User: What shape does this take?
Amino acid sequence: MRTGPIRATVAAGFIGLAMSVTAATATPVVSKDAALPIGSELNEQLLNQPTELFAFDRAGGKRFYLFNLGDMLFSSSSIFGGKAADAGMSCNSCHQQGANNNKLFVPGLSARPGTFDTNGALFNAKADNGVFDPVTVPSLRGSKYLAPYGHDGRIASLREFIRNVIVNEFAGPEPSGQVLDALVTYVNEISFLPNEKMTSDGHLTVKASDAARRGEALFNKPFRTNASMSCATCHQADAAFIDRKVHDIGTGGYFKTKTLINAKYNAPYFHDGRFDTFDEVVGYFDQHYDLGLSPSEQSDLVAYLDTIGDADTPFTPNTVQAEVDELTAFASVLDVAIPARDKDVIRLAVDSVGVEWREVGEKFPDRRDTSVDGGLAERLKARASVRDLVLTLRRVAMAAEADDFVEAARLYDRYKKLVVAATPRLQLAEPWSLYNPRVHERHFAALRRLSELAK
Ligand code: HEC
Ligand code: HEC
Assistant: This one.
């Protein structure tokens, strides 16, 4: 019950700049950012989201309960404790749609955007190792193939790694076996994105450029200083470009070989995120191993990394329909949890889906937001529909809490009908919402001006 009715009545929960704007307008806003140090950036207002693809999608399969549960939990802050829960953070805050949030920045815990010290004191005083050593947030695409886990490969089991994230890094309660199974199932399903320039066993296709082909040859060519070594001895093309080992390549210790699939979107590079581009990475290897690469060879190698690191559709626009689909999938765990009288899952689902719906509601600015003109009636109707949904959902949890599972099932049914009725209303208001790039731009420009004024 972390998010009570207070959050339900949040009128203008502008994320990111909320605190300063709140001060300026004296609106009674409960901002989740208030739990994080000033200057934190969660990068939540994405117009285009990293594309999310699951192994079963690629195999033509269907969603299933444990996966849906993991999907929902991945976006739930209720599995964490302390500051992370207060701040509304979830796995998804850092591993956005299973990719990396390369803008994530928490003062005191990040050295540069996209890095984070998981052993800092902010989220769990007990986890503090007293050293400021932020590392990049890795993409979880292809996680199934990327054991051992952690940049230093310290944990062989994905389950153990995730348990450690919840309990030790983010001060959450001991998760149930079901919660862990679900998250492991979900993470194992997060797939690499397809790339028409490369086959699944790492060979270039006819779509690859000549420069990339020359780069591939260099990638496989023995180093002049050590003939037993090439890029490919560690980054093995037919094994997701890894060798499942840790190496000291002069970056400050032993770290695991990184996959190069979809890596074009994984910057900043190396465990500490010291480099932003493949140019810099290749320059580093050339120097460290004294490879003697000419400038044109370096650029061919970069072309190769760009090619194998690419994805056909790296980003997908966020729309009302995409949100409705996602939240329908999250809530679908109630199809199983209510008949099973699983109060834990019911509570987690209601909390998590409720928070997400409120965030959807906030994408339809109310009349106080003068940066948006037009569609006010539509926007207000959209907000009202969302409010209805959230309240009905909350009543599902209350009925379950009172052991009235018949009533919970009836209310959940009502909730599903409300979603069907709300969808066209949300879509009608979509042109005047933050789903529209133009409105989004004006809204955040206005917020930035407000926060400047408040300084
Ligand atoms: C505040 C940001 C943050 C949150 C929240 C977070 N992670 Fe991470 N995650 C990281 C960072 C940073 C690393 C690298 C840590 C390391 O190397 O020790 C990481 C590493 C991982 C890895 C290892 C990947 C690999 O290839 O080695 C997995 C799996 C993972 N996280 C899953 C999760 C799950 C599941 C959750 C939610 C229960 C979660 N993370 C929450 C930042 C975060
Ligand atoms: C001895 C094994 C080894 C060799 C040889 C090697 N790498 Fe790596 N590579 C690694 C390791 C380990 C890391 C991660 C280092 C870190 O995190 O600090 C890495 C990281 C990278 C990254 C950054 C990926 C990311 O997401 O951070 C790229 C790109 C890369 N290597 C390309 C190459 C190229 C190109 C060559 C050949 C010039 C090469 N590697 C040779 C082991 C190797």
